[in-house]
């Protein structure tokens, strides 16, 4: 039985479905949970921004431990079990400072585990798309359950589901095959690597892309937090919020499955402008329209398309701007920029929403997306590397 499970497709289904289920169940409607507990919007935004703040420290340390020990599966199994345990502690406290610390640990553990999950999928004998699609289904189910739990069940039920999902993800990690670890490099190779690293860090188009991503992803990260707040402010019940996120997430499935048919055909600059145009439309509707039906339609029809496309854009552009063996480093640096953008926008959102309204915040973010599009006009990148074929 053990040999049948080891490296099986089912083990990877467990990893991807329950990892993303765990992420969604905890974070998708966390803003609604916190404000429902009587926590102000300013404190709510600070609590949620803790995940990005803690990730600055925990993600690099996790990566170092995984590489140093050569046991990424075991390291991430421990982290997922900690996510489950800490989520129960999170449910039992109402202290803002403890919530800040616990959310920071939980979300940073989740963020730190995701790259290893992606790496395990890439090292498996199965095609990436048919594994990653289970993550989309898991996230959709987690968001739906979170909305139903907040409205129909005691709030503790939500966090128990996070614990169960974390344990099942750990079971999947136990069954996956180990990825191939990189061979140790000589001193000469290390010196050459440092030289090539500094060369792309001084590439103005790479640095411009980092700035574009900070602006775009900072707004997108804040959008994930404030969409539930916007919907509830328009009178949408928590269970329906979960349903909206459920259907908006399912839109990702064809994008992921058929990415090889369109992502390599278009230039990275064109794809960025496309994602920005969708996001600008989304934010303008959120900021100017008071109809809950219109807002829900836009969330379902646009939100996931823009963000999922941009996730793939990052990989495509980095592969065309830096050497292939430095892709992970370049993406990690962009990830750090994403965290900075998210922290800034989360806290700005709390101040603006508390002082004015959540719709005013969306109009500010619409202005930042326009700025992103203007910067993108001066951006140049080749389309030589075929990433999704």
Counting DSSP E segments of at least 2 residues, the number of strands comes to 0
Approximate strand percentage: under 5%
Q: What are the secondary-structure elements, in order, as H or E? A: HHHHHHHHHHHHHHHH
> How many strands, which pairing sense, and closed or not: the largest β-sheet?
none
How large is the count of helical segments? Answer: 16
Q: What is the terminal separation in angstroms?
A: 36 Å
* Computed Rg: 20 Å
Mean pLDDT: 83
- What shape does the CA trace take? globular
Indicate the percent of residues in helices: over 70%
Oligomer: single chain
Structural class: mainly alpha
The low-pLDDT segments are 182-193
Description:
The chain is mainly alpha-helical and 389 residues long. Helix content is 81%, strand content 0%. It is built from 16 helices and no strands. α13 runs antiparallel to α14 and α14 packs antiparallel against α15. The longest helix has 30 residues. The chain is globular, with a radius of gyration of 20 Å. About 3% of the residues have low confidence.
Short description:
This protein is mainly α and 389 residues long. Helix content is 81%, strand content 0%.
Topology overview:
Elements: H1 2-5, H2 9-27, H3 30-36, H4 41-69, H5 72-91, H6 96-123, H7 128-152, H8 155-175, H9 187-201, H10 204-233, H11 238-250, H12 252-257, H13 268-288, H14 292-321, H15 327-355, H16 358-376
Provide key terms for this protein:
389 residues, mainly alpha, 16 helices, globular
């Amino acid at each position: 039985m053990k040999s049948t499970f080891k490296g099986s497709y089912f083990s990877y289904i467990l990893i991807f479905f329950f990892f993303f289920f765990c992420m969604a169940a905890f974070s998708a409607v966390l803003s609604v949970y916190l404000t429902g507990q009587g926590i102000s919007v300013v404190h709510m935004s600070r609590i949620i921004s803790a995940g990005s703040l803690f990730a600055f420290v925990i993600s690099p340390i996790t990566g170092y431990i995984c590489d140093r020990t050569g046991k990424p599966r075991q390291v991430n199994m421990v982290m997922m079990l900690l996510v489950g345990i800490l989520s129960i502690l999170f449910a039992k406290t109402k202290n803002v400072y403890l919530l800040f610390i616990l959310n920071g640990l939980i979300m940073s553990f989740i963020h730190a585990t995701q790259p290893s999950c992606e790496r395990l999928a890439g090292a498996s004998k199965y095609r990436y798309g048919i594994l990653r699609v289970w993550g989309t289904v898991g996230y959709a189910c987690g968001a739906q359950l979170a909305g139903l739990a907040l409205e129909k069940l005691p709030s503790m039920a939500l966090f128990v589901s996070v614990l169960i999902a974390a344990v099942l993800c750990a079971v999947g990690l136990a069954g996956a095959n180990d990825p191939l670890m990189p061979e140790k490099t000589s001193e000469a190779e290390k010196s050459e690597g440092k030289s090539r690293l500094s060369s792309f860090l001084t590439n103005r188009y790479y640095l411009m892309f980092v700035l574009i991503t900070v602006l775009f992803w900072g707004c997108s990260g804040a959008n994930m937090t404030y969409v539930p707040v916007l919907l509830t402010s328009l009178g949408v019940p928590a269970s329906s919020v979960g349903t909206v996120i459920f259907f908006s997430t399912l839109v990702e499935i064809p994008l992921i499955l058929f990415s090889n048919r369109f992502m390599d055909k278009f230039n990275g600059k064109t794809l960025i402008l496309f994602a920005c145009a969708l996001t600008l439309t989304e934010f303008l509707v959120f900021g100017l329209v008071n109809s809950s039906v219109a807002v829900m339609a836009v969330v379902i029809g646009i939100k996931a398309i823009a963000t999922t496309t941009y996730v793939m854009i990052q990989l495509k552009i980095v592969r065309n701007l830096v050497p292939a063996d430095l892709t992970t480093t370049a993406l990690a640096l962009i990830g750090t920029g994403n965290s900075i953008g998210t922290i800034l926008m989360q806290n700005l959102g709390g101040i603006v929403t508390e002082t004015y309204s959540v719709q005013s915040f969306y109009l500010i973010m619409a202005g930042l997306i326009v700025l992103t599009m203007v910067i993108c006009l001066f951006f140049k990148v080749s389309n030589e590397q075929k990433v999704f074929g």
